[in-house]
From TrEMBL, chain A:
The keyword Hydrolase does not apply. Keywords: Membrane, Transmembrane, Transmembrane helix. This is CUE domain-containing protein. Its main location: membrane. It comes from Diploscapter pachys. The lineage of its organism: Eukaryota, Metazoa, Ecdysozoa, Nematoda, Chromadorea.
From TrEMBL, chain B:
The keyword Nucleotide-binding applies. It comes from Diploscapter pachys. Residues 4-164 form the UBC core domain. This is Ubiquitin-conjugating enzyme E2 G2. Interacts with AUP1 (via C-terminus); the interaction recruits UBE2G2 to lipid droplets. Interacts with ubiquitin ligases AMFR/gp78 and RNF139/TRC8; recruitment to lipid droplets by AUP1 facilitates interaction of UBE2G2 with AMFR and RNF139, leading to sterol-induced ubiquitination of 3-hydroxy-3-methylglutaryl coenzyme A reductase and its subsequent proteasomal degradation. Accepts ubiquitin from the E1 complex and catalyzes its covalent attachment to other proteins. In vitro catalyzes 'Lys-48'-linked polyubiquitination. Involved in endoplasmic reticulum-associated degradation (ERAD). Required for sterol-induced ubiquitination of 3-hydroxy-3-methylglutaryl coenzyme A reductase and its subsequent proteasomal degradation.
Length: 411, 170
């Protein structure tokens, strides 16, 4: 524990630095939702190279810490949540796991609800180490982990009203643990701006203690989260990197004024956290984030599908070109009334003799006679069009010679 | 080198597209590889190959037009100057240096002033007038000389095949 003070002083220096940086950034409000997140986990090429060298050590460290982590889990489960022993033991073990928690400010026992900004998947663990608390499981987290960390199901899945009712009931119980909430609802970078808070914690209690959380990683300043990253990836980085310093700052309690609407009360709470981090509060809600995530996933999937389709098409075009020509000719043999060009085009689309024959049967394909006035289309100066010109000419050439041959035969 | 070849092929492609010679068309197989072409040749009128539309591949070397391209029919073509695998044996496709048959004069050989169009026109006239002095297909040459009727019958079936027509009965 003795090394905490030195770490802390180191950290303070950094926080001050961050503050100045953030003040500059505050002047330009985030214009898109994406600005609130780290887009890439690795911030610079330099760190990338550094990580490359560090990788074997990191992996080894991760594996060792994984084994230790199991024990931490066991201890966390065995010891009662309120005991001081648990806190000290867990804090040391978390330091071994690379999670160093630094506490600032004073916890005010009057407030039963804590509101914090969300910067990583283990925020609640950090706060829990400073001050035991309960996290209502608003998010979809595996049951086993919920059990291990002593989360409480306050009926979030049954709707907002139920959650508020259950939470109120919980904090009314004497000597109950305070409720930790992340009203942002999404993990953000905590460096540009906060998401607009969901006001539900403000409806639970009139006394809220805001908590600001900041993560700093010396040397390997890999971002604790990245937009759309999964919680287990975040955890991996926590355990693979030498260590991460999480500063948990308990801020002064915000009291709801009489007649003050929940929204304004909530805004005051979020403003307080933002101030402490030296950033602003944005107007984006976590619904906006969900929208953006969805759009991003959709775009990515479309791009992938498109690229895959294109490469498949390119390969098959090269390979099938002659085969398709052969098939075209064969189909023509049994369906002389259909134009070759139409058959080839349809085959390129269907890629199946059967399907094209079906199309011919149902009369979808152009007749040879109708196609005659085509095929001598304009020639553009654009070379990419020439291939199509060739294709048209090719089939009309076969068609014309075929007609001539048959004419010669009958005359 | 390849850059010049590409430029030259592009020029020829444009020429062949905008002013195609009668009964001949040619184009690269795909836009990414200009060194592999497909072409169609119509059998010359008043011959046993008349109205046949014969597909062939032309492969260009990287130092085209210094070296001649190679040409190969992709359909079966029973002809004295076409190998059984479809390769075309014609003097314009041979560099002045090599002479597999020893019957060709230098003037008919490949030189950079030749072009795809000239090659294809030569092939058309080759179809009309087989050169049985330097046969690539000995059987075809023999039949051409000795059993013209049978040769024409085979040729007619090739034409029918190229036009997606049912084969004539024997």
């Amino acid at each position: 524990m003795s090394n905490f003070s030195s770490l802390e002083s180191q950290l303070f220096g950094c926080v001050e630095l961050n503050d100045t940086v953030d003040v500059i950034m505050m002047s330009q409000a985030p214009s898109t939702v994406e600005d609130l997140f780290f887009q890439d986990r690795v911030p610079s090429t330099f760190v990338r190279y550094l990580l490359f060298i560090y990788f074997p050590i990191g992996l080894l460290l991760f594996l060792i810490r994984l084994c230790i982590g199991v024990h931490v889990f066991l201890i966390a489960c065995l010891l009662r949540k309120t005991t001081a022993l648990r806190r000290i033991v867990l804090r040391i073990m978390c330091s071994i796991l690379g999670i160093v928690v630094v506490e600032r400010g004073k916890r005010d026992e009057r407030a039963h609800v804590l509101c914090a900004n969300h910067v990583s998947a283990i925020d609640h663990l950090a706060v829990d180490l400073c001050n035991p608390c309960i996290l209502p499981s608003v998010w979809d987290i595996p049951n086993i982990i919920r059990w291990c960390f002593g989360y409480m199901d306050l009926g979030a899945s049954r709707g907002r009203q139920e959650l508020i009712r259950e939470s109120r009931k919980h904090i009314k119980q004497s000597n109950s643990l305070p409720l930790l909430t992340f009203p942002e609802g999404e993990i953000t970078s905590g460096e540009r701006a906060l998401l607009k808070f969901n006001p539900w914690p403000c409806e639970v209690s009139d006394l809220i203690q805001p908590v600001s959380i900041h993560i700093y990683r010396p040397v390997f300043n890999v971002n604790p989260s990245a937009f759309g990253s999964s919680w287990w990836a975040d955890c991996f980085w926590f355990m693979a990197l030498p260590f991460s310093i999480i500063t948990v700052t308990f801020l002064n309690v915000v009291e709801k004024e009489e007649q003050e609407p929940y929204n304004e009360y909530c805004d005051r709470v979020s403003q307080k956290i933002a101030e402490s981090l030296g950033i602003s509060v944005s107007n984006f809600t976590n619904q906006d984030v969900t929208e953006v995530t969805k759009r991003r996933d959709r775009d990515r999937m479309q791009r992938q599908a498109h690229a895959a389709a294109q490469s498949v098409q390119r390969v098959s075009e090269k390979m099938d070109h002659r085969r398709l020509d052969e098939l075209t000719m064969r189909i023509k043999q049994f369906n002389p009334q259909i134009s070759l060009f139409a058959i080839k085009k349809d085959l390129q689309k269907t890629r199946s003799t059967q399907a094209t024959l079906e199309n011919i049967k149902s009369g979808k394909l152009q007749k040879a006679a109708e196609a005659e006035d085509q095929g001598h289309g304009k020639i553009t100066m654009d070379p990419s069009q020439w291939r199509d010109v060739y294709e048209e000419r090719k089939w009309s050439m076969v068609e014309a010679n075929r007609a001539q041959y048959l004419k010669r035969l009958t005359s | 080198m390849a850059g010049y070849a590409l430029k030259r092929l592009m020029t020829e492609y444009k020429e062949l597209t905008t002013r195609p010679p009668e009964g001949i068309i040619a184009a690269p197989i795909d836009d990414e590889n200009f060194f592999e072409w497909e072409c169609l040749i119509t059998g010359p009128d008043d011959t046993c190959f008349a109205n046949g539309v014969f597909p062939a591949r032309i492969t260009f070397p990287q130092d085209y037009p210094l070296s001649p391209p190679k040409m190969r029919f992709t359909c079966e073509l029973f002809h004295p100057n076409i190998y059984q695998d479809g390769r075309v044996c014609i003097s314009i496709l041979h560099s002045p240096g090599d002479d597999p048959t020893g019957y060709e004069s230098s003037s008919e050989r490949w030189s950079p002033v030749q072009s795809i169009e000239k090659i294809l026109l030569s092939v058309v006239s080759m179809l009309a007038e087989p050169n049985d002095e330097s046969p690539a297909n000995v059987n075809a040459a023999k039949m051409w000389r000795e059993d013209r009727a049978q040769f024409e019958k085979i040729a007619d079936n090739t034409v029918r095949k190229s036009l997606a027509l049912p084969l004539a009965e024997n």
